[in-house]
Amino acid sequence: MNDFAAALLAGLARRPRRIPCRFLYDAAGSALFERITGLETYYLTRAETALLGRAGPAVAAMVGPGATVVEPGAGAMRKTRLLLAALERARAYVPVDVAGGFVRAAASRLAAERPDLAVVPVVADFTRLLPLPPLARAEPVLVFFPGSTIGNLAPAQAVRFLARMAAIAGPCGWVLVGVDPVHDRDRLLAAYDDAEGLTAAFMRNLLRRANRDLGAGFDPQAFDHRVRWNADAGRIEHRLVCRRAQKVTVAGRSFHFRRGEAIHAEDCHKYPPAHFHRLAARAGLRPAATWLHGEGLFSLHLLRPQCHGEIVPAPTGAASP
User: What is the rounded distance in angstroms from the CA atom of residue 183 to the CA atom of residue 186?
Assistant: First the structure.
């Protein structure tokens, strides 16, 4: 049984039902997400791209020459190009993504643009231990995790993930993370529930993927996409709510949906800088520098592994480029 089938069986048997959001990113889902990032209301990509352009020289100065960049959840690698252009004589780039065809095609395009750079894609689920090539251990290692993807993980999961990133970076390495702070409810809902319906299509693609890959028999159009801002938990919540009773079958096992029953598809946690620094400290990472977008729309955090016995200084405030 493949990973998707096992996760779908476990998630549909739960109450409330839940499917891990990493399965949103097959080839069709990845293409839909790239379209979402171009929407006017989806502020995250524009804000982070602008911030990377400003912070790039400072990141390069701190990391130093000859870096190996490892990027979990690489996607289309647009922001990666900005980082690689800023770094001094970057040695290698290792993109990691679960969508094999998508990441290989994007890596091939980047390798053609940068013949000076060793580009070695890895097809893997970045939320687990990564089977990285020996090339990824060439120091200094910079782990790049943009896009506020850290927010898709629950806080405890985020700590475990950051600890794995610290292990990949090694004692002499760095971790650069993009984080979305908390915004007003209207801005958040406009970003995550677009009028064009792309986010709804992106979420329903999870059900279409179950049909394509596993013959599940979902009626995706019978599920409404619902978005909620949970202020107490500091997160956006995505659900797919069934409009009518239906039965689906996965690996010979049947699941009955009642009208109004929901599948929890994704969370997007929002972290103010001080809150994120506390998460990073629990993972053994200390803040080396923080950059805030001029309008407070996004933040970038350059972190270093904390040496044994080292005291992590309290953050002294964010630098705004």
Answer: 8
Q: Residue ranges per domain, the chain?
A: 43-183+271-305
Q: Is the peptide bond before 321 cis (omega within 30 degrees of 0)?
A: no
CATH superfamily of 43-183+271-305: Vaccinia Virus protein VP39 (3.40.50.150)
Joined together, the tokens standing for residue 281 give: 């400290």
Contact 152, 237 (CB under 8 A): no
Residue 215, sorted as left (phi over 0), alpha (psi -120 to 50) or beta, turns out to be: left
28 residue type, one letter = A
Contact 182, 234 (CB under 8 A): yes
Q: How far apart are CA 287 and CA 277, in angstroms?
A: 7
d(C-alpha 263, C-alpha 246), whole Å: 13
* Site of tokens 């080292």: 310
* Secondary structure (3-state) at 9: helix
* Alpha helices for 141-294 (secondary structure H): 155-169, 185-192, 198-214, 273-282
Query: If residue 107 lies in a helix (H) or strand (E), which one and from where to where?
Result: helix 100-113
pTM equals 0.89
Q: For every one of its 321 residues, what pLDDT tens digit does the chain have, with 9 covering 90 and above?
A: 688 999 999 999 999 999 999 899 888 998 999 999 999 999 999 999 999 999 999 999 999 999 999 999 887 788 999 999 999 999 999 998 877 888 899 899 999 999 999 999 998 877 776 677 887 777 899 999 998 999 999 999 999 999 999 999 999 899 999 999 988 999 999 999 999 999 999 999 999 999 999 999 999 999 999 999 999 999 999 999 999 999 999 988 999 999 999 999 999 999 999 999 999 999 999 999 999 998 889 999 999 997 644 444 433 334 433
